[in-house]
C-alpha cells in the first residue's frame, strides 16, 4: 500500500468579494493538476452558494486513483500512463492496481486472480431473474436490474463499514460482471447460458461465455483476446465522470456497493457518456458512405440541428484522447487478423476523422475523437451486437467505480453528497380550491 497522501493547503489564497462581503478562500494543492479553491466555508461565512451545474469548474472530491490532463492528452492510473498499461498490462493487473494503489507482485497477482476466478459464478436463483425480462429488452436495462439485484443475493458482504465485506464485494463485482454481461447477451438471442470456466483467464472466459454454445466450443483467437483485454484496460477508470460521480453520490448515503454500481450503470447508459460507442455505429450506418460525410459534418455544425458527431468531443480532453489512439491501432490489428481490413465502417471512420480534424469548427472547439470512436468498430468486427457495446464498457468500468466507492467510504472526511440549487420557481403563494382554478 502506498503512503496515504492528501491535498495540502497552499500559502496562497483567493479573495472573493461582492456586495457587502469579502472572503479569503484557501488554495489547495494536489500532486498534479491545477490548484483548487476551497469554498467549503463559503456559505457559512457569506450566506452565498456557487453555481456550477455541469461541474465544469468544481472538484467534487479528493482522489488518488486517476489523473487526467485534458489539454495534453495525459491519463495516469496511480501514476502509470495508460499507454504503458495498455501496451504491457493485463486487465486484472490493472484492476489490482486501481483497487490497491500499487502494481501487484507475482504472488499478489496470483492470489487476486484466484479470488476473482472463484467468484465468477452467480447464485443459481439469479438465472431465473433473467427470465423475467422481455427478450427484446436492451441488455443495459437487464444489467441495471440484475447488478442491483446482487444486493438481494449477497447479504454476507453488505456491511460497508467492514473492510473485509468491502473487499469481497469488490471482488464479487469484478468477477461476476463478465458472467452477468454474457448472460444478458445469451438471453437476448435465446441461447442457453454458458457457465464460467475456471481454466480460462478473465478475458478468455468472458469470450467463452459470450460465444460458446453447448454444441460447439469457441476457439480463442489470441489477437482478439489481446484486443479485448486492451479495451477493458482502456475503459477501467476515468476519474470523476458522470457514472463514477453517480456511484460516489449514491454511495455517500451509505447505500450498498451493488446498488451503487447499478446506479453507475444507469448513468453510463446515456448517449453522451458510455452509450456513445453504440451511437457511433448507428451514426456510421446513417452516414452510409464517404460521399455523405460532408452533409453530416454540416449537420453537426448546425446549431438548429440536434445531430452531433458521436465519438467526438470530451468534457476534459481538449486534445486527442490517448485511449482513442490505442484503439485506432487495435482496430487495424483486429480487422487484419479477421481478414476484413477493408471493413467499410473503418474506412468511413478514418475519413470522417480526417475531415473533422481539418475543419475549423472542430479545431476551434478542440473536438477530437474520444475512446468511443474506434471501440465500436473493433467490437462489431469481433461479433458483438451494438447493443452490447455499452455493456462491455460497464463491465470494464466496474473496477474503477468500485475503487472510487471504496476510496470514498475510507475517507474520514466523507459526507453525504448534497448539492444546493439556484431556485427560480414561484414565490410563496396561497393554495386555492379546485373550484377556483
Ligand atoms: N459534435 C458537434 N459539436 C460538438 C460536439 C460533437 N460531438 N461536441 C461538442 N460540440 C460543440 C458544442 O455544440 C459546443 O459548441 P458551441 O461552443 O458553439 O456551443 C462546443 O462544442 C462545446 O460543447 P459542450 O457540449 O459544451 O461540451 P461538453 O463538455 O458539455 O460535452 C460531450 C462533452 C458530452 C462529450 C460532447 O462533446 C458530446 O456530446 N459528444 C458526443 C457524444 C460522445 O461522443 N460522448 C462520449 C464522451 S466520452 C465518454 O463518455 C467515454
Q: Can you walk through the features of this model?
A:
This protein has 437 residues and is mostly helical. It is built from 18 helices and 6 strands. Strand 4 and strand 5 (74-77) form a beta hairpin. It is globular. The relative contact order is 0.12. The model has no long low-confidence stretch (mean pLDDT 93). The structure holds acetyl coenzyme *A. Acetyl coenzyme *A is lined by residues 272-274, 276, 300, 308-315, 365, 367, 370-372.
Question: What brief labels describe this structure?
Answer:
3-stranded antiparallel β-sheet; binds acetyl coenzyme *A; mainly alpha; 437 residues
Q: What does the radius of gyration come to?
A: 23 Å
The shape is globular
Strand tally: 6
Name the strands of the widest sheet in spatial order: 1-2-3
Name the helicity range: 40-55%
Distinct small molecules bound, one entry per kind: acetyl coenzyme *A
Number of helix segments?
Answer: 18
Strand content: 5-15%
Give, in order, the helices and strands. Answer: EEEHEEEHHHHHHHHHHHHHHHHH
Let me know the largest β-sheet. Answer: 3 strands, antiparallel
Mean pLDDT: 93
| Distance between the amino and carboxyl termini | 66 Å
Query: SS-based structural class?
Result: mainly alpha
Quaternary form: single chain
Low-confidence stretches: none
Amino acid at each position: 500500500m502506498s503512503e496515504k497522501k492528501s491535498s495540502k493547503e497552499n500559502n496562497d489564497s483567493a479573495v472573493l468579494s461582492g456586495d457587502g462581503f469579502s472572503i479569503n478562500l484557501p488554495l489547495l494543492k494536489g500532486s498534479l493538476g491545477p490548484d483548487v479553491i476551497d469554498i467549503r466555508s463559503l456559505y457559512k461565512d457569506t450566506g452565498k452558494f456557487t453555481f456550477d451545474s455541469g461541474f465544469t469548474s468544481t472538484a467534487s472530491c479528493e482522489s488518488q486513483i486517476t489523473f487526467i490532463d485534458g489539454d495534453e492528452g495525459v491519463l495516469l492510473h496511480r501514476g502509470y500512463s495508460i499507454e504503458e498499461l495498455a501496451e504491457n498490462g493485463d486487465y486484472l493487473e490493472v484492476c489490482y492496481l486501481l483497487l490497491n494503489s500499487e502494481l501487484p507482485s507475482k504472488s499478489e497477482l496470483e492470489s487476486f486472480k484466484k479470488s476473482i476466478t472463484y467468484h465468477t459464478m452467480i447464485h443459481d436463483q439469479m438465472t431465473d431473474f433473467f427470465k423475467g425480462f422481455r427478450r427484446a429488452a436492451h441488455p443495459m436495462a437487464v444489467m441495471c436490474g440484475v447488478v442491483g439485484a446482487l444486493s438481494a443475493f449477497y447479504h454476507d458482504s453488505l456491511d460497508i463499514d467492514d473492510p473485509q465485506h468491502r473487499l469481497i464485494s469488490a471482488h464479487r463485482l469484478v468477477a461476476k460482471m463478465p458472467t452477468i454481461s454474457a448472460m444478458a447477451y445469451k438471453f437476448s438471442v435465446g441461447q442457453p447460458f454458458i457457465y464460467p470456466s475456471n481454466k480460462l483467464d478473465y478475458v478468455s472466459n468472458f469470450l467463452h461465455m459470450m460465444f460458446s454454445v453447448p454444441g460447439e466450443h469457441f476457439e480463442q483467437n489470441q489477437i482478439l483476446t489481446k484486443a479485448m483485454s486492451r479495451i477493458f484496460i482502456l475503459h477501467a477508470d476515468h476519474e470523476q465522470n458522470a457514472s463514477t460521480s453517480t456511484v460516489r453520490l449514491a454511495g455517500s448515503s451509505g447505500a450498498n456497493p451493488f446498488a451503487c454500481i447499478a446506479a453507475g450503470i444507469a448513468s453510463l447508459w446515456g448517449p453522451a457518456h458510455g452509450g456513445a460507442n453504440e451511437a457511433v455505429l448507428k451514426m456510421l450506418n446513417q452516414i452510409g458512405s464517404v460521399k455523405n460525410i460532408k452533409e453530416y459534418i454540416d449537420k453537426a455544425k448546425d446549431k438548429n440541428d440536434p445531430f452531433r458527431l458521436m465519438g467526438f468531443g470530451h468534457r476534459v480532453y481538449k486534445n486527442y484522447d490517448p485511449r482513442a489512439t490505442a484503439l485506432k491501432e487495435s482496430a487495424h490489428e483486429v480487422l487484419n487478423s479477421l481478414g476484413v481490413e477493408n471493413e467499410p465502417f473503418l474506412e468511413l471512420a478514418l475519413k470522417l476523422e480526417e475531415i473533422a480534424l481539418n475543419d475549423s469548427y472542430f479545431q476551434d472547439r478542440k473536438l477530437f475523437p474520444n475512446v468511443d470512436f474506434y471501440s465500436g468498430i473493433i467490437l462489431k468486427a469481433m461479433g458483438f451486437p451494438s447493443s452490447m457495446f455499452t455493456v462491455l464498457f460497464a463491465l470494464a468500468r466496474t473496477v474503477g467505480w468500485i475503487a472510487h466507492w471504496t476510496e470514498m467510504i475510507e475517507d474520514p472526511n466523507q459526507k453525504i453528497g448534497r448539492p444546493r440549487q439556484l431556485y427560480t420557481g414561484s414565490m410563496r403563494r396561497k393554495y386555492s380550491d379546485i373550484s377556483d382554478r
